């Protein structure tokens, strides 16, 4: 049974029933809010502001009062009729306060959760709205993009069409250009042919005709300048008269300004003299042909008219040229015959000179080889003379050298006087060599080089043979010395050999004496000889 005591704490079933009812009501409100459209939903308020508005409003106060009455009714429903003590009453009050406080706390927490849920729902709603707006904008963007794509395709088609038209036009223009170029090349060829013909005809034209045309052109030029000079002189005269009239008018105006003042006799005489001088000098300057510039000559006057008017003129000139050519052909044939005769004589002379030059070259080579042999022999003799010394041996060497020089001299000059001195012989030989070398320089270079190579090869062969003979002689001498040493009795030494203190070898510095003049090198260079 429900208790009549208002301070009686309701049972847990009632409290949970109230909570379930409240939760069910909130759930129903949320479901209803979910079913509403965007424009039907309200705006969530701040929980504290909503609470204050709820407390301030009449509806809020009525709901609060109703909830309190429900609590009081629940508390007094099963109220007991018996009396209670003050301590129990206070304890019950305390329990009621704690229950009420816990309920308030739970309600506040529930309210906060509901507000958070509403905020989340509001955020979801705004997100949905933004998504819808984004979807609308995206749809609009797609539509615009489609329109732009269509327009771009249309423009591309138009540009492609225009491009194809331009390409066709360019092809036509290129064909026209090619055709024009071919025509121009054809005309240029024709013009070149005409120029060649004109040059040919100008060559056939007599020079007197060109001189006459130049004289006529100069006369026309002088006539043009004279006509221009007359016009220019007339203009100068008119300008001079105008200037003089203006000057006289200015003088008259100045005299009018001064008035009719009495003038002295001296001033009148001066004015009269000035007037006479002005009348004497009152003629316009005369122009000459040099003062007139000659304008550019017209094109039709620059071209010299053709000398040939009829084909017969060309035929006459060709006939005259043919006659002169026949005369020239006859002269050329005579000249060729004379030239052939000269060539024959030149070939004979050349053959004779080549034979002489060959013989002279052979003599020169013999002389060179003899000189080389004598030089080697003189070197050997000089070496021996240096080792042994002695006036007698030097005299013998000089006598042998004089004999060799006389042999060479007699070989070159068979009919020469034998009483010539050795130095004079060498001078004559040198002069003959210079003469022969001069003749060789006049010969063809290729033949001279071939002969030089042949003679050089022969000289080297001869030099090698001489060296081989000398080497054989030296070998024979060494063999003879070896035989003599082998035949000598053997000397036996007794005891140990005497050992001397070793002496360190001292490197001697070689003193190179540079000489600006070497007589042998000078002779070799002068005679055109070289050692192998």
TrEMBL record:
Coiled coil: none annotated. InterPro entries: CFAP_domain-containing, DUF4200. Residues 89-206 form the DUF4200 domain. Residues 291-302 have a biased composition (Acidic residues). Pfam families: DUF4200. Keywords: Cell projection, Cilium, Coiled coil, Flagellum. GO terms for cellular component: cytoskeleton. Residues 22-47, 255-303 are annotated as: Disordered. It comes from the Eukaryota. Residues 22-43 have a biased composition (Basic and acidic residues). PANTHER family: CILIA AND FLAGELLA ASSOCIATED PROTEIN 100 (PTHR21683:SF3), COILED-COIL DOMAIN-CONTAINING PROTEIN 42 LIKE-2-LIKE-RELATED (PTHR21683). This is Flagellar associated protein.
